[in-house]
């Protein structure tokens, strides 16, 4: 995260650099909320265009929070949320897969599917906080900044998310 | 459990050794551990961020205009139509003339915007503009009317013969065939006829006939007689008296006789036979009635 761009973001190069450093995270965040790539793309574009339109009045250090504020507001306009569909990274697959018994692998696959479903069933607030941590590797204070809430509230959401996930997975074992 | 965020602490590796040990002893630990492991492997379906940026770059320069452009074709038109409609309405409203007419045989009483009362005698017409009435109290009169004017600024009655200006008063105006009779009943009345200006006090009457001023006796009544169907004529040509009777009774009266003498007196306007009798008596005439047509001829 490069937040120390000099004056204003109206300059093409600065804007493009700012986009490179923030767009992906913003899009991910929006995807956690909408569960819909198209809407996430659209909202990401909208947020950046709004930022460009207001670049003169938004100081660089405020640009990020401006971006997320716009994104958070756009969220309210979309009602039809879809289920979040997340894929598992291929490269993270265990090296010694070959040594595992087929039963174990089966169980693992089942668990993965259950986890996907359970995440999709989380509340929007819990899911966003949880996935920002797990996928984007954001610190709690960063998540707090993105969501516009306190760190304590983030911890509560994460705690609640884990509790909920564990319950759902264990219940449908 | 409300404020318990231990799971969040654990996920963020913030637990101390003892806490961790206790946590790991829980039967649920296995599942939590797996959640942590596998959720870390999750990925978001990725977009072509360059394409996204191109999109933004393309739209952002238009970004200011599209909103304007969307409104452009309509907003000015709608605004123009509104302004036009408003203007037309205002124009008609400000120039709209209200007309009150009392037909032959009927009187008409109406109130002006300031609650001034006007009684139109039969066969009379009054025009005025309601817009801005309070600061422009002006009324055009053709015929005869009695005014009971509310207090306020000037009040003008414009007749073909002259203009009557009053301040809070009651007065009668008769403007017929080039003759103007103004009688003041209360307050003060200013009558302007050409260059001449006359002020009337209660009971005084002024009359002009074809530019000549006529002197008429004072009136003792507090209201014009015609309000009670008793019309007073002061030095009026017989033809005019007959015209007034035609208006009041809604009949046609033909005068087939010469009558130089002017009429002075009161004629009832609710009983045509009595009215005719008076005329016949004064002018030595005889009357013949055929339906709505009355012929007066020499005896």
From TrEMBL, chain A:
<dbReference type="InterPro" id="IPR036388">
    <property type="entry name" value="WH-like_DNA-bd_sf"/>
</dbReference>
<comment type="similarity">
    <text>Belongs to the sigma-70 factor family. ECF subfamily.</text>
</comment>
<dbReference type="GO" id="GO:0003677">
    <property type="term" value="F:DNA binding"/>
</dbReference>
<dbReference type="InterPro" id="IPR013325">
    <property type="entry name" value="RNA_pol_sigma_r2"/>
</dbReference>
<keyword id="KW-0804">Transcription</keyword>
<protein>
    <submittedName>
        <fullName>RNA polymerase sigma-70 factor</fullName>
    </submittedName>
</protein>
<feature type="domain" description="RNA polymerase sigma-70 region 2">
    <location>
        <begin position="19"/>
        <end position="82"/>
    </location>
</feature>
<keyword id="KW-0805">Transcription regulation</keyword>
<dbReference type="GO" id="GO:0016987">
    <property type="term" value="F:sigma factor activity"/>
</dbReference>
<dbReference type="InterPro" id="IPR007627">
    <property type="entry name" value="RNA_pol_sigma70_r2"/>
</dbReference>
<dbReference type="Pfam" id="PF04542">
    <property type="entry name" value="Sigma70_r2"/>
</dbReference>
<dbReference type="InterPro" id="IPR014284">
    <property type="entry name" value="RNA_pol_sigma-70_dom"/>
</dbReference>
<dbReference type="GO" id="GO:0006352">
    <property type="term" value="P:DNA-templated transcription initiation"/>
</dbReference>
<dbReference type="Pfam" id="PF08281">
    <property type="entry name" value="Sigma70_r4_2"/>
</dbReference>
<dbReference type="InterPro" id="IPR013324">
    <property type="entry name" value="RNA_pol_sigma_r3/r4-like"/>
</dbReference>
<feature type="domain" description="RNA polymerase sigma factor 70 region 4 type 2">
    <location>
        <begin position="114"/>
        <end position="165"/>
    </location>
</feature>
<keyword id="KW-0731">Sigma factor</keyword>
<dbReference type="InterPro" id="IPR039425">
    <property type="entry name" value="RNA_pol_sigma-70-like"/>
</dbReference>
<dbReference type="InterPro" id="IPR013249">
    <property type="entry name" value="RNA_pol_sigma70_r4_t2"/>
</dbReference>
TrEMBL record, chain B:
<dbReference type="InterPro" id="IPR012373">
    <property type="entry name" value="Ferrdict_sens_TM"/>
</dbReference>
<keyword id="KW-1133">Transmembrane helix</keyword>
<dbReference type="Pfam" id="PF04773">
    <property type="entry name" value="FecR"/>
</dbReference>
<feature type="transmembrane region" description="Helical">
    <location>
        <begin position="74"/>
        <end position="93"/>
    </location>
</feature>
<dbReference type="InterPro" id="IPR032508">
    <property type="entry name" value="FecR_C"/>
</dbReference>
<feature type="domain" description="FecR protein">
    <location>
        <begin position="103"/>
        <end position="190"/>
    </location>
</feature>
<feature type="domain" description="Protein FecR C-terminal">
    <location>
        <begin position="232"/>
        <end position="295"/>
    </location>
</feature>
<keyword id="KW-0472">Membrane</keyword>
<dbReference type="Pfam" id="PF16344">
    <property type="entry name" value="FecR_C"/>
</dbReference>
<dbReference type="InterPro" id="IPR006860">
    <property type="entry name" value="FecR"/>
</dbReference>
<protein>
    <recommendedName>
        <fullName>FecR protein domain-containing protein</fullName>
    </recommendedName>
</protein>
<dbReference type="GO" id="GO:0016989">
    <property type="term" value="F:sigma factor antagonist activity"/>
</dbReference>
<keyword id="KW-0812">Transmembrane</keyword>
């Amino acid at each position: 995260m490069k937040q120390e761009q000099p004056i204003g973001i109206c300059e093409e190069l600065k804007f493009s650099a700012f986009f490179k450093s923030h767009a992906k995270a913003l899009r991910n965040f929006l995807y956690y909320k909408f569960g819909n790539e198209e809407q996430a793309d659209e909202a990401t574009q909208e947020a950046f265009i709004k930022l460009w339109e207001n670049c003169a009045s938004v100081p660089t250090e405020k640009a990020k929070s401006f971006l997320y504020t716009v994104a958070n507001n756009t969220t309210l306009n979309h009602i039809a949320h879809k289920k979040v569909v997340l894929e598992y990274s291929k490269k993270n697959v265990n090296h010694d897969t070959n040594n595992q018994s087929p039963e174990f692998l089966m169980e693992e696959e089942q668990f993965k599917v259950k986890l996907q479903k359970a995440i999709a069933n989380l509340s929007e607030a819990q899911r966003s906080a949880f996935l920002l941590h797990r996928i984007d590797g954001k610190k709690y204070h960063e998540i707090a900044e993105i969501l516009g809430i306190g760190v304590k509230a983030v911890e509560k959401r994460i705690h609640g998310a884990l509790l909920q996930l564990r319950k759902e997975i264990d219940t449908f074992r | 459990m409300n404020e318990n965020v231990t799971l969040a602490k654990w996920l963020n590796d913030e637990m101390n050794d003892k806490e961790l040990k206790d946590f790991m002893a829980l039967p649920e630990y296995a599942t939590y551990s797996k959640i942590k492991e596998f959720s870390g492997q999750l990925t978001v379906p990725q977009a072509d961020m360059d394409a996204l940026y191109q999109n933004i770059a393309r739209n952002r320069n238009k970004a200011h205009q599209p909103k304007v452009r969307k409104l452009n074709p309509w907003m000015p038109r709608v605004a123009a139509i509104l302004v036009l409609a408003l203007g037309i309405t205002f124009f008609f409203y400000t120039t709209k003339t209200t007309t009150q007419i009392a037909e032959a045989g009927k009187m008409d009483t109406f109130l002006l915007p300031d609650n001034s009362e006007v009684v139109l005698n039969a066969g009379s017409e009054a025009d005025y503009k309601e817009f801005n009435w309070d600061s422009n109290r002006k009324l055009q009169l053709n015929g005869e009317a009695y005014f009971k004017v509310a207090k306020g600024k000037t009040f003008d009655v414009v007749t073909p013969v002259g203009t009557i200006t009053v301040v809070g008063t009651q007065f009668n105006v008769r403007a017929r065939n080039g003759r103007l009779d103004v009688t003041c009943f209360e307050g003060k009345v200013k009558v302007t006829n050409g260059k001449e200006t006359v002020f009337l006090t209660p009971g005084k009457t002024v009359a002009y006939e074809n530019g000549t001023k006529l002197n008429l006796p004072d009136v003792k009544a507090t209201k014009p007689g015609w309000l009670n169907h008793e019309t007073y004529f002061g030095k009026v040509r017989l033809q005019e008296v007959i015209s007034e009777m035609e208006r009041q009774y809604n009949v046609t009266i033909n005068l087939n006789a010469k009558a130089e003498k002017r009429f002075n007196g009161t004629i009832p306007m609710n009983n045509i036979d009595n009215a005719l009798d008076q005329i016949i008596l004064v002018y030595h005439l005889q009357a013949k009635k055929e339906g709505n047509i009355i012929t007066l001829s020499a005896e």
